[in-house]
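hi! just following up on the protien thing from before. the input was this:
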Amino acid sequence: MQHDDQATTQTPVSGQQLMLGIDLGTSRTAIMSSRGTKETVRSVVGYPKDLIGIKLLGAPMIVGDAAYEKRAFLDLRYPLEDGVLREYGQRDIEVARDLMGYVIGRATPKPDDTICAVIGVPARASKANKTSLLRMAQEVVDMALVVSEPFMVAYGQNKLLNSLVIDIGAGTVDICGLKGTMPGPEDQVTLTKAGNFIDERLQAAILERYPHVQMNLNVACAIKEEHAFVGHSPGPINVSLRSGGKPVICDVSEPIKAACEAMLPEIIENMKVLVEAFPPEDQSTVLRNIILAGGGSQIRGLAEVIAANFNDYGDVHVTRVSDPTYDGCSGALKLAQELPPKYWGQLGDMIGF
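and the predicted 3d structure came back as:
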């Protein structure tokens, strides 16, 4: 498979088409294919720190959960920052290429396949971000389209008219108003107080309450993923931490509540701005079609707290997608399968036709 260096490469179609939906995430990347692939990959690449690491690993690099589990002797690199590719230097580009190649490889393409991928990016990703991603994708796929992640969710849910999608990931919260057309910049917003922000706030809050415990972001993230909530407290949340190497039991309910609720004001404020941007006759319909997606949608009490902030707006329905892990890439795959790639250029930036 050969490609030109420009993002406008013309690629002939040959063999069978392999359709891919890819949801690039700061923490995890999900992929689905037209042949039944359905996988998530931790968005991290690990490289041995020294010759001992090379001997232990038996390979020049490793990707995903396996890299994270072997982090003691690996240099871990996260090529996605706030949901877009980092490009600080040649090394960052190589890391991103290693991750992308691994993700595409999980779909086990055949040698004569024409690989067509719809890839999700944050709602307000810049033109430069999209161009950078397409140039990277160019090395491993024949055709690629980048679209906003909340649009992928809306497409998969058949909610393309008079709805509002809030997609909460690790690096970003994307909020998008759907008006029956491809959303423009004025219809979308990307916030950076998301899952990683909660981890940082939770770590700080636990250390403030229990300064003697050993705490890092990995521990904070694990606590968040199991116990996250907003609104009414479910009662004491006792977790086992370490102090001086010994286990101690700590109630972390208040730190969890404070950390999770810290991201809400910006979300609510921007939701209200986007709702008010709809024609007045459509706003009541929009308020009944608010959709929570992404890993952060699993925070307990989130739908109820959001709805409560719109009490004076009328009847409000906030629902969560049934599969937060794959809601984005399933919508991307559905788009790839329903719309022939020759029309993709009408939806956004692409390489290929």
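Residues 17-153+326-351 form a domain with the Nucleotidyltransferase; domain 5 fold (CATH 3.30.420.40).
The chain has twelve helices and 18 strands.
cheers
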